[in-house]
Design brief:
Helices cover 46% and strands 23% of the residues. The chain folds into two domains: 155 residues, no CATH class; 189 residues, no CATH class. 23% of the residues are buried. It is of the alpha+beta class and 465 residues long.
């Protein structure tokens, strides 16, 4: 069931908060303005850097041989990224010759969700009702349930083991006869599940500790009953897989359904299956406190890089405007495709940050002038009208201000486009300030004409008398 909490805020408190929000509104307005200016400069500098890099790069025809003539040159080349480094996960005693070994951890926990609704009352009070709901989910870190609002769910969370996430990276990754730098190495994404061969003694210790943690939470368990439940669950999963195969493809309906992957361990509270190590009784029916650890590795793969040659390695290319650039993409790719993708990404971020900046400018203005609505909250109907008007004005002014800032930035970086944006902002100001006023006068005149037309003529009244 959902748990509800109701909080009433008095009129004086609300007015006090609204005046305090003026300062934070100013800060948000200034920060948003700075973001808009910085974003335009960032986009222009990135575009100029990409143009400079595209005009400067040369093809690396044979990465398998160090060419002194390429030293200091910006190159684009493709080769196999590989390593002879052996990486070992010390906690679990497993390792591989790989570019990276990655350990991801998830915990099965109760998670609190909240949804709030506020209502204004006559006299200026605000009543906020918050509804809290709870669900079991796999999350990346343990959830502190002691602070849950519903007492029925407080202190419900536990974990049977705490395992830190970890990424191990090889230091020596070759690119033909060259070596990749750290940034390029970390850009390789040829992820593959890792086979687990955890020592039995370690598995026994983990199993014992997990059982103790489990019994502290749920008490003693009948292992034979649990195993029977696990076998029944496995049979149900096999039947479901068989039904899925039969319905998905009738041509393959006669083929036997694939059997579930065998559990490599014979322990009750620890299950090693594929690249997953599971802490808990039944992987198919998780309980709060269960933990699953997934192991992956980054294997050698063909990559394409654009970077500046630095002896037998690489470094980032530095453009004339100070912007740096190096890139690694998976597979064999043309330089033109890489630069096209970079320009698309630059354009995407330009618009994302523009929209964000405009929204923050509007929010800052609403924070500054929001007190006008709050002061009138003694009569909610009137306050809502004023609030709507303040919102409209702040939105229009915020958009106009943002356009002016963007235009000035472009005027500084690219004058032609900047002048066009200033003209657009001026047009909006003219429409809002003058055309809006004319429209109001026109509406008032029409209303007066209707009133005059509805009123009886004096002559007609005299004739009737």
């Amino acid at each position: 069931m959902a748990f509800q909490e109701t909080v009433t805020t008095g009129y004086g408190t609300r007015v006090g908060r609204s005046f305090k929000s003026i300062g934070s509104g100013f800060l948000l307005f200034i920060a948003a303005t700075a973001l808009l200016w910085w974003n335009e400069g960032r986009a222009v500098k990135t575009d100029k850097m990409l143009n400079e890099a595209e005009g400067a790069y040369v093809e690396m025809e044979n990465p398998n041989k160090i060419d002194p003539a390429l030293d200091g040159e910006l190159i684009c080349g493709s080769a196999l990224a590989t390593t002879n480094d052996s990486l070992i996960d010390q906690q679990f005693g497993i390792g591989a010759t790989a570019i990276s070994i990655q350990r991801d951890v998830e915990y099965y926990q109760w998670v609190e969700h909240s949804e709030s609704k506020s209502e204004d009352k006559l006299g200026g009070k605000e009543v906020t009702t918050t509804t809290y709901t709870y669900s079991k989910e796999w999350v990346s870190s343990p959830v502190e349930s002691a602070s849950f609002k519903d007492p029925a769910y407080q202190n419900k969370n536990t974990v049977f083991a705490t395992v830190e996430e970890q990424d191990l990276w090889a230091e020596n990754v070759s690119f033909g006869a060259y070596k990749l730098n750290e940034s390029l190495i970390h850009s390789i994404s040829s992820k593959q599940p890792m086979d687990l061969n955890i020592n039995d003694d370690l598995l026994k210790e983990i199993n014992r500790n997990t059982q103790l943690a489990y019994e502290r939470t749920y008490g003693k368990v009948n292992i034979s009953e649990v195993k029977a439940q696990q076998e029944q669950l496995a049979q149900q999963q096999a039947q479901q897989q068989a039904q899925a195969v039969a319905t998905a493809d009738t041509a393959k309906a006669q083929e036997p359904a694939p059997a579930p992957a065998p559990d490599k361990s014979n322990y009750d509270f620890i299950h090693q299956n594929g690249n997953v190590l599971y802490y808990g009784l039944t992987p198919g029916a998780p309980q709060v406190g269960d933990v699953r650890v997934t192991f992956n590795k980054i294997i050698p793969a063909k990559v394409t890089i654009i970077a500046q040659v630095n002896g037998d390695s690489f470094k980032a290319f530095k453009a004339k405007n100070g912007k740096r650039f190096q890139r690694l993409v998976m597979g064999k790719t043309d330089a033109e495709e890489i630069f096209e993708g970079e320009r698309a990404a630059n354009s995407m971020w330009l618009w994302v940050l523009r929209i964000l900046g405009i929204i923050l400018v509007i929010s800052g203005l609403k924070g500054i002038f929001g007190f006008l609505e709050i002061i009138l909250k003694v009569v909610p109907f009137i306050a809502n009208i004023i609030g709507w008007g303040v919102g409209v004005v702040c939105t229009v002014v915020g958009i106009v201000w943002s356009l002016i800032v963007i235009a000035l930035a472009w005027l500084f970086y690219r004058p032609l486009i900047g002048i066009s944006l200033l003209l657009l902002a001026g047009f909006l100001i003219w429409v809002f300030a003058f055309k809006g006023k004319d429209k109001l006068k026109e509406m008032a005149a029409k209303a007066k004409n209707k009133q005059d037309a509805a009123a009886p003529a004096p002559e007609a009244d005299n004739q009737q008398q």
